[in-house]
Input
Amino acid sequence: MKLILGYLREYIRGLNMKVLTSVSLLMAVLIYINYSTGIERHLMAMDTFDRLAGYFCFFLFVYGSAWLLQFLLVSNVSYPPRFFYVLLIACPMIFAIKVSADDIARWLTAGLEEPWNRYGYLTLNWPLKCLLAWLLVLLVWRLGKYEGPVAGTQRRGFDVKPYFLLLLFMVPLLVFAATQADFQHTYPKVQRVAFIDDYATPSWPWKLLYELAYGIDFLTIEFFFRGFMILAFLRYAGKDAILPMAAFYCAIHFGKPLFECITSYFGGAILGVVVYHTRNIWGGLIVHLGIAWLMELLGGLAQSGSQ
Output
């Protein structure tokens, strides 16, 4: 735990406060606009290709604006080489594709009988999107001629204890979040497959499979945001890649409860700092996946308590 705190202290000491203030203000304004007008809700209501284009433009605006603020506010900054701009475009495009690729799982499960077609779609969607995002990241990684394992996925040993301690410190915040109405409306995600109770006895193995598939989405998030978006930009920006990533990461939470969205900005930055130092995504995955499944547990408990 001391090691992680040391990483954070070092990062904070080196932060350009003008950049931090500007990017944080940008995200505060966008969060206000989203929760007032429903940016994310309108994007999700679009047809597949319109949604893809809409998310790409939105993510590019957020991510590009964060980078632009750094270029404008940091003195003596040099313009990066051409592949930097390839990455700048590729990151919003890959994640827009990931968000909009629901039709693949829907097509693969369309032939199943009701309700297994619905269950199959909901359970298969996350693993398929993970595979798609991985292939696209791998393509860009190869184009950039990066060395070593892709996006921080090396199997080097690391001490898991600090990450479980960090997860433990998150529990009070999660308990507080579980008292909020928007949290209780959103979680647990497994309630989306509650209909399986009428078709499978016992139903818990099917719900467990759904939870495991849900967990795969956090592998996607970690290798993309921390592994790819930090480590691919190291050669161009070093630790300055962390804040734009955190802004982008916050933007993908615009459909989540407000408290979760706000904390994602800071949580994304913290996990980015860890990967910057360790070059490894697995510790961050422990924290992120632990939080996700704790939210499922707390959401289930809150739901049971209200019945």
User: Anything to note?
Assistant: Residues 20 and 255 are 24 Å apart (CA to CA). The chain has a mean pLDDT of 89. The chain has 14 helices and no strands.
